[in-house]
Amino acid sequence: MTGMETTAASPRFVMSGDLTQLFYRLAAVGLICVVLSFLNDAFLTINNLLNVLRQASLVFFMASGLTLVILTGKIDLSVGATVGLSACLAATMIKSTGSPWLGAMVGIGAGSLVGIANGVMVAGLRIPSFIATYGSLWIVQGITYYYMAGETIYGFPPGFRALGSGYALGIPIPVYLMAGFLFIGSFFARRTTYGQQIYAIGANAVAARLSGIPVNSRLVLVFIMSGAMAGLASLVFLARLNSAEGDIGESLTLPTIAAVLIGGTSLFGGIGTVFGTFVGALILTLILNGMNLLAVSANWQPLVTGAIIIFAVWLDMATTARREASA
Amino acid sequence: MTDHGLTTQPAAANASVLTHMPGVAFMLILLFVAFATASPGFATLANLSNVVLQSTILLIIALPMTLIIMTEGLDLSMGAVLTLTSIVFAAVLLPTGSYAVAFLASSAVGSLFGAANGWLIAVPRIPPFVTTLGTLGIAQGLCLIVTDGQSIVGLPPQLQLLYAGTILGVPVPLVMAAVAYLAIHGVLYHTRFGTYVPALGGNREALRQAGVNDSLVLVAVYTLGGFMAGVAATLLTARMNAAHPTAAIGMEFDAIAAVAVGGTQFERGNGWLFGTLLGVATIGVLRNGLNLLAIPSSVQVSCVGLLVVLALLVDGLRSTDE
Amino acid sequence: MRISHIMLAAAAMGAATTAACADGETIAVFTKNQTNPFFQNVRVGTENAAKQLGAKVIQYVPTRPDSIPEQLSQIEDVIIKKPNAVVFIPVDYKAMVPGVEKMNAAGIPVVNTTDHSAGGKIVAFIGIDDYKVAVTTARSLLNAIKGRGNVVIIEGVKGSLSSQDRVRGFNDVLKEFPNVKLLASQPGNFQRLNALQVMENLVQSFPVIDGVIAANDAMAIGAIEALDAANRKSVVVGINGTKEAVEAIKAGKLLASGQADPFMQGCLSALVALRHLRHQPVPDEMYLKPSVIDKSNYQQFDMPVEARTCPKWDDAATN
Fold first, then answer.
1. Residues C241 and C269 in one domain
2. A contacts of B304 (beta carbons < 8 Å)
3. Are residues C39 and C188 in the same domain?
4. Residues 294-313 of B with CB under 8 A from C
5. Are residues C119 and C52 in the same domain?
6. Cα→Cα distances B56→B62, B72, B284, Å
């Protein structure tokens, strides 16, 4: 259809490999749930499960945009800082105009601007994405700190706060949003030309360019989407926390990357799905939730997160190798 | 023997110095001149000695990081491993009172993490970003678990001499950093092992065909990183006269920035060890100068990011001319 | 004078001095991070006091929050610039001792604020008695729930002295109320998001929580958000007296907040530093009187910190 000539990693192959991976992951989710329900009575309650979904949704918003970037073989380390900047700017707009919609526009707009900057550096100036987004992380962080000057912005209209802490038909609103973006994101990645081109670029950027895909503008696009999703995530954070501080996004970068990796998206590019990221976010949140319910000290969280990341990717590579060997 | 992509300078060295001076040297000189003009206290012996001293810990971990990046790899866990080995050093020093035993313990733990990183990257081929992200979490977790968030204090006061003392008039950290630099320089540019390192990044297949066990070399490179973290930990603990579970978290990013600013590339194995030294110096000068000018902390944060982007920009623009 | 309560200090210095003419001293102020409003209030306090007395303040904050090596480097850099005095909040009260000693060696007088350094020579310490404030605050909550029910404690940062003292205070007061059960005591790292997540989980594990005792206001507010989202009600208290806490008290969501008055801590620290430089007598320690902000007295704190002014020395001393 688009004249793509990539062979080993065309979306079709990717899909069948992905299904196996997804199956393993969903099985893991089921296993974790079963184990936790035995270990703690409070786990299998509706309230707790909805909580888990809501907490997972926050990670998912950021991780979904990041997934697109990683699919092209790049990385975006600035997501946490972008959440911070977007949140603070959106908060100011909401407080001064009282309109959550204007705040949303500002937040998503700010995130997109950061995304454009990242995209230009990576695609246009050919700076390796790791170091370019590390640099933009610090620049954005500094701007946020300067702007906030140590203050907190708080007290948002209740209608807006429902975005983060409200319920509709007994289910937290962020969960609906997550479902929506899961659908949109998966559709975009799988069924649109843009999405297929993104996979192609990740599989083999040279071949993609030779087959006529505008690699540079697609790269800029994925960075914009990563930034915009960070902007969106910041709104949900604002709604949930009912406040904005300069460091609101700092602690989020690691769990976000972890969710993408645990979800089976490969850093080499071309392999992975938005749904996989959703499952990855779910796995991570479930385990952290379980640890909390079992009153395991928070000191253990980084260790467990690190171990899961290694384990999940290791499993992926082992099963892929076996599959390729037997193919 | 073919050149495995090993370079001692990132650009052609015969044309005019100004157009072919590495980006980092340019930045360093620019910053130096700017700060010396703007701030009277900057270009004094006392202040510059401070900058040098403050940079020694970073240099000691940036050196092995250069080698790691030359293999097209990355070690995100260095800051956490540095912190953990600092804790081990303090925790062993307290009951035994023996610096030798404490150093043995801390460098062993560091080497262990390095070896684990190297193994995971070499054998199951888990990408370095993922592996070291995982070990970062594990090391950081161990720091918190072992100390429960508390500093370890009560160390013998002589420990501080390790950072504040001198050997033949030269400050100890400077001696250690110089020894480290010379050692890594010697290994990289004067041993056969040293030629394998960039080959791992630029042409791994050729290496294997030459009969070299590339996995072993990879493990060695990362183990070296962990070991050096253990060495740097002694300086860190001496500086604080304590160990703290979050002391050096995030320092690996400064090391990576120094290496990148210094001209070592993330792909194809080109590397420049002296560039890393310049990169470390540039970051140190930048932070020191901004402090002396009392630039607000928020602006400082952005400046560090700008430095990284600009240095890479300069290098990138120049390499497109060639 | 080894220990001097503020009252004694007042008696000793009552009519001694007021603002001297502008001497143009420079004070370097060290705080822990850029984002916690507590430290922002301290910074504003120091600048306010210094301006009144014709002196200058330079702020030093680590770019990486609470970074020990960075604060050590900033101290070394500051010594080159030789400020007249330093107001110092250590990022870690134990690990920063060498930093204090460096300043001592350079002959720069150090006023220690908020977290008492574990070593080094200081001109004076200004802060609150975290333990006493915690006791008073927790007691007001336990009285409000009529001495019976279930409570949870949300602690601060594990290695922080103020967190340790406050939690100790909470626990000691609990002993006075045998009919109150402590369900859990978990760290929230003094941060809103952490406390929110901790509270969300606690709400799942325990169907009835009557009281939440948080070691600072940010966490108390985070807990309130979690409770609201879960449609649960509890009595909540915090410590620090931030503006947001005052508004929450006004709105009836927060019962009380232990007074830490970081703005005042900043004022007094700068005042003490300047007095010391001008060879005027200063006490070794100044502890703000332990008190609690609640519905009855919040009005005086209901304003942005920039609108406040530092008291003159005599007024502060008599407080």
1. no
2. 138
3. no
4. 294, 296-298, 300-301, 304
5. yes
6. 10, 25, 10
Number of domains observed in the structure of chain B: 1
Give the domain-ending residue among C236, C258, C280: C258
Average pLDDT across chain A, whole number: 87
**pLDDT for A55:** 87
Sequence-ordered list of residues with C-beta below 8 angstroms from that of A137, at least 6 positions apart, any chain: A77, A78, A80, A81, B305
Q: Provide the token pair at C80.
A: 């080159």
Does residue C51 lie within any of the structural domains? yes
Q: pLDDT tens-digit profile of B224-245?
A: 999 999 999 999 999 999 999 9
Return d(Cα B266, Cα A314) in angstroms, integer: 23
Per-residue pLDDT at B66:
95
B16 pLDDT exceeds 80?
no
Per-residue confidence (pLDDT) for residue C312, from 0 to 100: 81
Mean pLDDT across chain C: 88
User: What is the complex's ipTM, to 2 decimals?
Assistant: 0.87
pLDDT score of B51: 94
Supply the range of the domain harboring residue B241.
55-250+264-271
What are the backbone angles phi and psi of residue B66, rounded to the nearest 5°?
Answer: -60, -50
Q: From the CA of C168, how many Å to the nearest CA of chain B?
A: 16
The neighbouring-strand residues paired with A168 are: A171
Q: Do residues C266 and C168 both lie within one domain?
A: no
Report phi then psi at B115, rounded to 5. -65, -40
Mutation site for A-interface testing, chosen from B297, B302, B307 by largest number of A Cβ within 10 Å = B302
Q: How far apart are CA B248 and CA B84, in angstroms?
A: 9
Low-confidence ranges of chain A (pLDDT < 70): 1-18, 321-327
At B170-201, the pLDDT tens digits run 999 999 999 999 999 999 999 999 989 988 88
Q: In total, how many domains does chain C have? A: 2
Q: Report the share of chain B in percent with pLDDT over 90.
A: 66
In a domain, B319, yes or no: no
Q: Is residue C312 part of a domain?
A: no
Tens-place pLDDT, residues A104-127 = 999 999 999 999 999 999 999 888
Contacts of C159 in chain B (CB under 8 A): 147, 149-151, 244-245
Contact A248, A107 (CB under 8 A): no
In the A/B pair of chains, how many CB contacts fall below 8 A?
145
Pairwise CB contact (< 8 Å): B241 & C72: no
pLDDT at B318 (0 to 100):
64
What is the CATH classification number for the domain harbouring C19?
Answer: 3.40.50.2300
Same domain, C123 and C268: yes
Domain for residue C49, yes or no? yes
pLDDT tens-place string over residues B131-162: 999 999 999 999 999 998 889 999 998 999 99
Find chain B residues with C-beta within 8 A of A299's C-beta: 141, 144-145, 148-149
* The model's pTM: 0.89
Interface of A with C (CB under 8 A): 40, 42, 45, 47-48, 51, 55, 145, 148-152, 154-155, 164-165, 237, 240-243, 245-248, 250-251, 289, 292-293, 295, 298
User: Does the beta-carbon distance from C158 to B150 stay under 8 Å?
Assistant: yes
B154 falls within a domain? yes
Confidence class of residue B17 from pLDDT cuts 50, 70 and 90? very low
B46 touches chain C (CB under 8 A): yes
Cα–Cα distance, B231 to C122 (Å, whole number): 33
**Which 3 state secondary structure label does DSSP give B127?**
coil
Contacts of A147 (CB under 8 A, 6+ apart): A85, A88, A89, A246
Look at residue C294 and tell me if it is in a domain: no
Print the domain residue range for C49.
Answer: 6-127+262-288
Give, in words, the CATH class of A11-326.
mainly alpha
Q: Which residues of chain C have pLDDT under 70?
A: 1-23, 315-319
